[in-house]
Amino acid sequence: MALIVQKYGGSSVADAEAVKRVAQRIVAQKKAGYDVVVVVSAMGDTTDELLDLAEQVSPLPPGRELDMLLTAGERISMALVAMAIGNLGYEARSFTGSQAGVITTSLHGNAKIIDVTPGRIKDALAEGAICIVAGFQGVSQDSKDITTLGRGGSDTTAVALAAALNADVCEIYTDVDGVFTADPRIVPSARRIPKISYEEMLEMAASGAKILHLRCVEYARRYGIPLHVRSSFNQKPGTWVVSEVEETEGMEQPIISGVAHDRSEAKITVVGVPDRVGEAAAIFKALADAEINVDMIVQNVSAASTSRTDISFTLPSDSGQSALAALKKIQDKVGFESLLYNDRIGKVSLIGAGMRSYPGVTARFFDAVARQGINIDMISTSEIRISIVVEQDDVDAAVAAAHSEFQLDADQVEAVVYGGTGR
Amino acid sequence: MALIVQKYGGSSVADAEAVKRVAQRIVAQKKAGYDVVVVVSAMGDTTDELLDLAEQVSPLPPGRELDMLLTAGERISMALVAMAIGNLGYEARSFTGSQAGVITTSLHGNAKIIDVTPGRIKDALAEGAICIVAGFQGVSQDSKDITTLGRGGSDTTAVALAAALNADVCEIYTDVDGVFTADPRIVPSARRIPKISYEEMLEMAASGAKILHLRCVEYARRYGIPLHVRSSFNQKPGTWVVSEVEETEGMEQPIISGVAHDRSEAKITVVGVPDRVGEAAAIFKALADAEINVDMIVQNVSAASTSRTDISFTLPSDSGQSALAALKKIQDKVGFESLLYNDRIGKVSLIGAGMRSYPGVTARFFDAVARQGINIDMISTSEIRISIVVEQDDVDAAVAAAHSEFQLDADQVEAVVYGGTGR
């Protein structure tokens, strides 16, 4: 029998009414003949409320206990979803991450999945039950303590279970209609992308598109699990994330799939780094030791007169203070002159597998941005992505300019012929 | 090292401030050199809120899922208590019932503890940590599903852990100062009982005193665990529940320990039961099959003219409807005439090991009640208890009359010499 794994986010199970609506969706798939495994997040604001309680009790709660606390959230939502399904006449059983066999590392708050051994899920499916699994959580291999998976954890749980159960598809339900060519709050004419490749989706996620987390897409690509991103509030077709977007389906691959943006990064410039072998390595080793994820890196050509160079990089702005502290520690050893910090930046990225075969995309992108009078501060590229850093206030205009330039607006859509809207 | 098991009820951990106060109490015992294991209930209204959510989703939620839902409550409180202790510089680790080795039957909502295998608790104690354990919950031996223990479950968890860990004492923290000679809301001059035997406490609990649940006291008696009932809001000495209240400590055993009352019962009279062998058995078998707990039973002498008799019994009034239904099913077979139902009754019980050696207690009790013009409807006695059933509106007056008659009022206390207030 075909198996579907569904994941519902916090907004999809925000209250009793939402839980009942989700239960009807789940039962509809069961009625259609599928085995169904459902991964749920905590209801709406539960996690924030629990974090608030923790803060009132302790300014720096131990990770083990914070994980114990937060996992209460999914426990509540999964039991309620199971009850609502029972009320529709179908049997549902809820399972914690630990009961579902989600084995993780011991890093509380940001554990990684090591293995998934869903023996109890398989048994329950074989007995005809619908399985409801707590997202975002697991049990550590070493200490058998409860862990949480950090950001994107529920999506990752769903994909990992889909892989372990050899599911036919993993449906990610959310509060938007799918993946869009740009954030519709910035570009009202943005369109839903019916189908996108794992690679493009990875670049979208890494470039600030919040709909799917990087880890989840990476996991899906590694195990070849088709993802179907759609709204739990309507029956619209959503977005498929698959291994290859075939051009044979009468579908002409658009040059650009979408425009992503990210305002959460900051830029640090290390000024006057002596132009000697190994200095850049020392800087990035210090950052790695402090567990800071560096994104874009730009090194200027050194001024011949000084034999010194500037190195700029971007990083999540909430890592800013610890990065500056880590760098100050090695200032004397490396011998750089000073540090500059700017968190008023934004990143705008153009993503599309089509740009592989269309030269000139970079030039058109930069030109479109320049026509808006926007200055480009940093540039980084991959085979299917071009990212630029601009002033934070210029992000919206840059996104809109790029979106329009590559004919992604809905009123330009006739120019691009898409294939089917699903599979 | 001496080991203390403490249990804090929902009102003792009702909010962040209460959690911090409890943490200080726990740390004080640790500082005093004890190993400490703490059992916590869900915070204040959490259980009611979760039940309300369940009701919104399903009118009759499956027991398995209701247990999964409700156990989120203790998960939250235990993590918060552990965090608050960590904030005071001591290591605390929280454990679910399952992690603490509380193995139960599979009866969701009212599971019984089969075994306690607290291996992880012992390890954590050996490493110097304070252990925080979720009360009210366990894991079923057969299906490995999460269960709850029903009423009094957290107290029972604490006593069961104390027995399995061979603890020196089990402290039950609550929002009152201990066990009183009567409910202080009815008898303002009621006094705290400094020390009481398991047997008397069992009779108190069975007679409606709500401070300790019957199961918890039974468990403590079976394993000889001294219970210390006290308030988490002050440092008052509370009440000790122990195997024997020695008369050797310069303490004269009072005749009566206390007066308990219970308004939660109803009375059913089976009218005109044929006076044949086995008819009463048939009636009570039907009730037992419907899992109804019958309390007091009175059978009238049969009227010689009719060869029929009336049988009256009391039962929890929330079982009233199912009891009537069970009896109606056997009406034709047994051949009784009719059923009478009265839920406007109340039970008043006099409890005291001293009444063993003081004849005339019954007469004094009945006389004191009669002087208030109160009619006695049913009577039942044990070696250390006398219970009467009266009109519900007469309960307060009957309690006050008995309390005064046996010199339990605070202004009469000089007449009775108590021993020490602790151990």
List keywords for this structure.
12 helices; 8-stranded mixed β-sheet; 423 residues; alpha/beta; disordered C terminus; 4-stranded mixed β-sheet
Task: Describe what this molecule looks like in 3D.
The structure is a homodimer of 423-residue chains. Chain A has a domain at 3-175: 3-Layer(aba) Sandwich (Carbamate kinase). Helices cover 33% and strands 25% of the residues of chain A. The first copy, chain A, has helices spanning 16-31, 46-57, 63-87, 119-126, 153-164, 198-206, 214-223, 279-289, 320-329, 331-334, 361-371, 395-405; strands spanning 3-8, 35-40, 92-95, 102-104, 113-116, 130-134, 137-140, 146-148, 169-174, 195-197, 227-231, 239-242, 258-262, 265-274, 297-299, 308-316, 338-342, 345-351, 378-382, 385-391. Chain A has an 8-stranded mixed beta sheet, with helices on both faces. Chain A has a 4-stranded mixed beta sheet with strand order 5-4-7-8. A 4-stranded antiparallel beta sheet of chain A has the order 13-18-20-19, with helices on both faces. In chain A, strand 7 and strand 8 form a beta hairpin. In chain A, helix 5 packs parallel to helix 7 and helix 6 packs antiparallel against helix 7 (214-223). At the A-B interface, helix 1, helix 2, helix 3 and strand 3 of A face helix 1, helix 2, helix 3 and strand 3 of B. Chains A, B: Keywords: Amino-acid biosynthesis, ATP-binding, Diaminopimelate biosynthesis, Kinase, Lysine biosynthesis, Nucleotide-binding, Transferase. Chains A, B: GO terms for molecular function: aspartate kinase activity.
